[in-house]
């Protein structure tokens, strides 16, 4: 037996065993296929936290001949402790029993049992045979009901039968399991065997600490991203004043590309925090995050409505000791009514709207430089934060067993706003506005203090989202 808890995930072919393992160990690389029999050999997948393996789950082949296996076990005359060694000795070289031998080997080595079954179909005699085989092993065992099609017509029948054979029965959908549900499953495993309580308690604590660390890192990444993006500028020399508009348009597009790249980098970093291969992660097909950052749809869906935006600015003015330009805020809110709802990059936005600042600077006699940026409206803070938070939501709900469903964290509010920051209280929104102003004022002691407060605000929000 390993020095840390090990559980063999066992069941009939194509019942979701590999999906359960992939979700619990956060491994995108585990092969999952709708075709039965893809797993032909048992393979152990440890969970590593702080450089140490704390628990392992063994993905096993599906049963091939449970009725024959059960018949042999019922005829066995030896001691219970000799049942599995005798079975493996007799059938170890029998190709027809290869799957049974492979799935029972980790049980012989001391693993606990997690039996996975699809409860959306009727109970069969072969299922009863599998349950009895696992009961006869004498190992601590839990049954997981995985309703693959969502149908629950047979759920109670399954539960009644499973209670006769297993120490514990849980409903767990590997394709939709949240962090909180995974943690509850691990906590349930503690009750299977008294000797494991201490070790599994440490596993649960380690999972919770690690998740909190990830959220703290994501919050820090987001605040660093905001500070960089809100201060970004693009400049170029201007020899002919008549070229100013064209030069500003080029610089605005360059700034736009730079901001997009920074956001993509942030989103990739969040994926990595939650052990997703960026190549396997995909946004839902209808996600608003598929809209360009600078499109009218993004501006319409994310951010704050005018009333909340002005209230946040007022709160920030008091907190930061200086009021923000409310006239500019109000003016910028009407921007997309004037561009007819079409996608519009910064090149079309900065002129007179206060969304990005543009200016000409002197460099000496006859020399001028034109500068575009930094972003000039506090609304960008809420838009960028809302996109970050929605992306985080998708990442933590993207099963390592692969899913393609659309998850929206909050219903669309009246007025078309969907962003999470709209549900924050006035103090939190005021902090965002004060942070925006502090970034614009340059690196000061006040801005550093606000950065710390912003990180704490986001950590709390990410923890809250994790528990939903």
The description of the largest β-sheet is: 6 strands, mixed
Net shape: elongated
SS summary, helix count: 17
- Poorly predicted runs of 5 or more residues: 318-343, 348-354, 410-415
Structural category is alpha/beta
Domain unit count: 2
On the 0 to 100 scale, the average pLDDT is 83
Please report the total strand number as a whole number. Answer: 9
Strand sequence of the main sheet, in spatial order? 2-3-1-4-5-6
Could you describe the 3D structure shown?
With 468 residues, the chain is α/β, with parallel strands linked by helices. It folds into two domains: 6-175, Rossmann fold; 213-466, no CATH class. Helix content is 49%, strand content 12%. The strands form two sheets. A six-stranded mixed beta sheet has the order 2-3-1-4-5-6, sandwiched between helices. Strands 7-9-8 form a three-stranded antiparallel beta sheet. Strand 8 and strand 9 (367-375) form a beta hairpin. Helix 3 (83-91) runs antiparallel to helix 4 and helix 16 (426-441) packs antiparallel against helix 17 (445-466). The longest helix is centred in the middle third of the chain and has 34 residues, at 197-230. Residues 318-343, 348-354 and 410-415 have low confidence and may be disordered.
């Amino acid at each position: 037996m390993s020095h840390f808890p090990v559980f063999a995930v066992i069941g009939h072919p194509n019942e979701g065993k590999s999906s359960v393992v992939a979700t619990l160990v956060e491994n995108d690389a585990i092969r999952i296929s709708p075709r039965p029999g893809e797993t032909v050999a048992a393979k152990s997948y440890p969970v590593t936290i702080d450089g140490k393996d704390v628990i392992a789950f063994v993905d096993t082949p599906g049963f091939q001949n449970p009725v024959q296996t059960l018949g042999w076990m019922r005829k066995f005359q030896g001691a219970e402790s000799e049942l599995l060694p005798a079975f493996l000795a007799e059938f170890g070289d029998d190709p027809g029993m290869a799957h049974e031998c492979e799935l029972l080997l980790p049980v012989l080595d001391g693993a606990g049992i997690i039996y996975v079954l699809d409860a959306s179909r009727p109970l069969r005699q072969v299922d009863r045979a599998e349950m009895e085989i696992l009961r006869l092993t004498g190992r601590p065992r839990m049954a997981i009901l995985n309703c693959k099609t969502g149908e629950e017509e047979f759920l109670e029948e399954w539960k009644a039968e499973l209670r006769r054979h297993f120490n514990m029965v849980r409903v767990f959908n590997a394709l939709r399991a949240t962090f909180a549900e995974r943690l509850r499953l691990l906590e349930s495993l503690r009750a299977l065997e008294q000797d494991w309580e201490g070790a599994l308690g440490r596993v649960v604590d380690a999972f919770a600490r690690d998740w909190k660390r990830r959220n703290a890192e994501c919050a820090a990444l987001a605040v660093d991203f905001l500070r960089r993006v809100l201060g970004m500028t693009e400049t170029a020399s201007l020899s002919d004043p008549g070229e100013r508009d064209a030069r500003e348009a080029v610089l605005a597009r360059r700034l736009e590309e730079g901001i997009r790249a920074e956001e993509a980098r942030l989103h990739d970093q969040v994926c990595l925090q939650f052990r997703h291969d960026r190549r396997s992660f995909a946004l839902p097909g209808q996600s608003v995050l598929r809209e360009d950052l600078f499109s009218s749809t993004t501006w319409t869906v994310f951010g704050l409505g005018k009333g909340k935006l002005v209230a946040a600015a007022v709160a920030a003015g008091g907190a930061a000791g200086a009021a923000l330009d409310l006239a500019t805020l109000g003016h910028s809110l009407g921007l997309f009514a004037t561009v007819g709802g079409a996608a519009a990059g910064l090149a079309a936005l900065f002129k007179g709207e206060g969304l990005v600042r543009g200016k000409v600077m002197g460099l000496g006699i006859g020399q001028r430089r034109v500068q575009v940026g930094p972003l000039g409206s506090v609304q960008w803070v809420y838009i960028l934060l809302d996109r970050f938070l929605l992306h985080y939501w998708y990442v933590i709900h993207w099963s390592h067993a692969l899913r393609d469903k659309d998850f929206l964290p909050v219903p669309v509010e009246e007025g078309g706003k969907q962003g999470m920051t709209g549900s924050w209280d006035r103090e939190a929104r005021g902090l965002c506005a004060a942070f925006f102003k502090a970034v614009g004022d340059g690196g000061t002691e006040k801005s550093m203090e606000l950065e710390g407060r912003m990180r704490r605000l986001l950590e709390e929000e990410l923890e809250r989202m994790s528990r939903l």
